[in-house]
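Data's thin. Show one?
=====
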Amino acid sequence: MGSSRRLTDQERRQIVRERAKGVSVSAISAVLKVSPKTVYNVLRRGRSAVSANDSRTRVLTMRVTDRDLRGFDAALARRGISHRSDAMRCLMLAADDLLRPDEGMTDELKGLSAALNRVGNNVNQVARRLNEAKLKGERLPYTPASHAEIRDLAVLVFDMADQIQEMFRARRRELDLEVTKALAGLARQEAEQVAEYGAE
C-alpha cells in the first residue's frame, strides 16, 4: 500500500494519538500513506518517545524472578494480551482503583477484633483465677461457666476465620474485576490489530 518512507516525529505522535482515539490502523496508514506494518511498528516498538498527550515518556525498569514473569505472562495470556509494557501501563493508570483500601472490610475487621477482645478478656479472667488457686494450693475453680466461656471463644475464633476468608475472597473478586476492566481495552485493541494485520 504505502511507501517505506521515514516518519517524522509529528507523524509518530499523530499515530499514537489517533490510535488512542480508536481510529483503525488501516485508516491511519491510508491518511499518512504508509503501510499498516509501519503504523504497527510505531505502536508496538514505541519509536516515538512522546505519548498521545505530547508529554515526554519515561522508561521504567524493574527486576522480577523468572517465575513471577511467567506468572504475569500467563495471566495476560488468559486475557488475550501479549504485550507486557502495554499491560503494565494500563495497570498503572488503574492504580487508584486497584490500590484503594476497602473501608467496608476494615470496619468489619474492627468489629471482629472488638468481639474477640471481649471474649479474650473473659478467658484471661478464668486463667487468672486458675493461676491464683494453683499458687495458693487451693482446688482449681474451673466451673461450667468457665468451660462455656472457653467454648464461646473457640466458636468465635472459627466463625471469625470463616468470615475473614469470605471477606478476602470477596476482595479478590473485586480486584479481579478491576484488573479485567483495566485490561479490557487492551485485549480488544490487540484482537483488532490481529484481525487487521491478518486482512492486510
